[in-house]
Design brief:
This protein is an alpha+beta fold. 28% of the residues lie in helices and 38% in strands. The protein has 3 helices and 4 strands, in the order H-H-E-E-H-E-E. It has helices at 3-6, 16-34, 66-69; strands at 38-44, 54-63, 73-82, 86-94. Strands 1-2-3-4 form a 4-stranded antiparallel β-sheet, with helices on one face.
């Protein structure tokens, strides 16, 4: 996956499935960084609509950190595109 393409503020229109693929890639990157497996438990992705000024897609994820922390990390991985302006990504976790 090409991060420059993902974080392009003027992206091509993406389908819900393409968004799931992008967010799955982000979760795999987090797995590599954390050194523990993660599992997507639900997703909120939708096809981009022409003329939209903001696009937001996200997945809920659980990282298996029970052995290291005594609990699993649960959170949300998301990506927001403010068309023509910028792209932000977010990771929010709860223990």
């Amino acid at each position: 996956m090409n991060p420059q393409e993902i974080f392009n503020p003027r992206p091509p229109h993406r389908t819900a499935d393409q968004w799931k693929e992008i967010l799955s890639w982000a979760v795999r990157e987090l797995e590599d960084h954390l050194g523990v497996p993660g599992k997507i438990t639900s997703s909120s992705t939708k096809d981009d609509k022409p003329g939209s000024v903001s696009l937001h897609n996200m997945v809920d994820v659980v990282f298996e950190t029970e052995a290291q922390l005594g609990y699993d990390l649960c959170g949300v991985v998301g990506c927001r595109v403010n068309v023509g302006k910028g792209v932000s990504r977010s990771i929010v976790t709860n223990g």
